Amino acid sequence: MKRIAGRTLYTLLVLFLASVAVFYAIRLSGGDATAARLVASATAEDREAFRELLGLNEPIHQQYFTYMGRLLSGDLGVSLTNSSDIFKMLTFHGRNSLILGVTAFTLVFAVGIPLGILAARKRNTWVDGAVMTFSIGGMAVPNFWLALLAIWLFASVWGLLPSAGCCSPRQLIMPAFVLALEGIALTVRMTRSAMLENLESDHVRTLRAGGLSEARVVNKHVLRASFIPIISLMGLRIGQIVGYALVVETIFGWPGLGQVLVNAVLRRDYPVAQFFSLVLVAIVVAGNWAADIGYSLANPRLRKT
Amino acid sequence: MAQTVPSKIGSTQQARSPAETLLSIRNLRTAVSQGEDRFDIVRDLSLDIFPNEIVCLVGESGCGKSITALSVMRLLPTPPVRAIGGEIQFKENDLLTLSDKEMRKVRAEDIAMVFQDPLTSLDPVFSVGSVMTEVIKAHRDLDTNTARTMALEALQEVGLPDPEKRLDSYPHQMSGGMRQRVLIATALVLDPDLLIADEPTTALDVTVQAQILEMLLEEQRQRHMSILLITHDLAVVAGVADRVAVMYAGEIVEQAPVDELFEDPKHPYTQGLLHALPHISVKREKLIPIPGVVPPPQMMPPGCRFAPRCPYALSRCWQERPELEINAGRPLRCFNPQPFVA
Known about the structure:
The complex is a heterodimer.
Chain A: H1 2-28, H2 44-54, H3 60-72, H4 86-121, H5 126-140, H6 143-157, H7 169-199, H8 202-209, H9 214-251, H10 257-266, H11 270-298, H12 300-303
Helix pairs in contact in A: 1-11, 4-5, 4-7, 4-9, 5-7, 6-7, 6-9, 7-9, 9-10, 9-11, 10-11
Chain B: E1 23-34, E2 37-49, E3 54-58, H1 65-73, E4 81-90, E5 93-94, H2 100-106, E6 111-114, H3 128-139, H4 144-157, H5 163-167, H6 176-188, E7 194-198, H7 206-223, E8 226-231, H8 234-240, E9 243-248, E10 251-257, H9 258-263, H10 268-275, H11 315-319, E11 325-327, E12 330-332
Parallel strand pairs in B: 3-8, 3-9, 6-7, 7-8
Antiparallel strand pairs in B: 1-2, 1-4, 4-5, 9-10, 11-12
Helix pairs in contact in B: 3-4, 4-6, 6-7
């Protein structure tokens, strides 16, 4: 319990620091916020008046407190480009991203863990070799290239899947797999090596000496001990998926948070960019927090301290 | 059969017939594969264990003691290590020819094993009680509560403090001595006929060692089981053994009841071991170490394996391999035994 409380406090601190960093980074990154809304022919006075209106002439720390005050009271503001309500953007794009992200995350572990177990149980056979070759390939291929390759093969050449768009299951297949592949590859390796380490450990030999069947030893005891490193991998993977989603959503024209954020940054749409950056930070931090908690629950050595 | 087992000196028991043996290892050969090559780690090993006795298997590190034990349990790391010859008769069966399923029934139920390192030998992510219950239920058709009660009784019996609480403990919450008691309780919970204990006290403090050994002896007496105790510690041997088999480089070189072995060791290796031991009644200027080390399996000498380190080696010893033969009333693998000078 003490550990969980500690991790939670730590997580809140990280969130706070991240919000400050995001806020400053956007304002210090250069570019002109007025370009988001005003036409190119607007005069210097018009621009100055617009800045004044947005409060951009205030000291940055003051802008921060004003912004955070509104945010915490539930006022997310509107986009500078088209005045659309940011809360509505969050629900629409957030839902799309959630579909893509959760699918990819599920694929990572639903495919990666069984393949890793298979490779460990068939170690040093051709099955193991094939799985490990796939794993090395999966880690080596950059996702933006894989995305283009997949579109070319499955959409252009074979015409099996739509090349882009949202949000039918057929449209989901390619972006989800592209987003998941590196994670699958890494999970396979991690699961395999954790399984192998435990298969030959002293405590597993004790269980065999107790007359437990090999299936029970592997499926219950070895697997459970091997899950400990995999759980920390899950926390990190959430962060990776959020990061890669920016690229994958853009390539596949998937209207998710990543796409919104990329566009907002390019247009200096401050309210949108900073809010969605914060959302992504919060997801990553929450993922790590959940992994920490899960890790404590799975590992009795951390449970009661 | 060339080597019969001598009767126990100082006990009322007479020489026993092979029919009475609990475990009879005959010409066991266990080898490790390295690529195309194969090297023997245990060679031509024969050993009998009778009901209700403690046999010690003694020797330096790396001489094949643990491999012998794991061969009996069929828990060798295969590949690369494999028992490739001989027989291991237990009751009516040759353990080496049993199916995996039949062998699983033998483990814990008939022959149980306790390992060397209590710190790593317990499952770190399951509680003591859940693992013990699982072992019991793998052999007996019992509900969880009954199995838990059996586990609790076993923990009480091995003298674990606060056993009810310990059922729900995890290994990291216990000391080394407590963990070894848990391992022993797990091994004894199904009341096996034979307990193989592989250096059960080596990793423990000296005071805890004595307690654990005392407890093992007590259990052996109460349960009328046999123990095959593997150790390199001659002080332990002197304290607990009925009979002793001395191993060198994968072979048994001498076998005798414990009193005879300590009084009158015949094999130069056994004599060397005793010379290297401080003795309370004999004043020695220095302990005399055995020069050299055990040769690795890839580099075994063609003749007697101890010849390179033996002070009495003859030219014959370098060329011919001595067999384990009855010599002066005990199984001995030596061409040139010398009287022992303490």
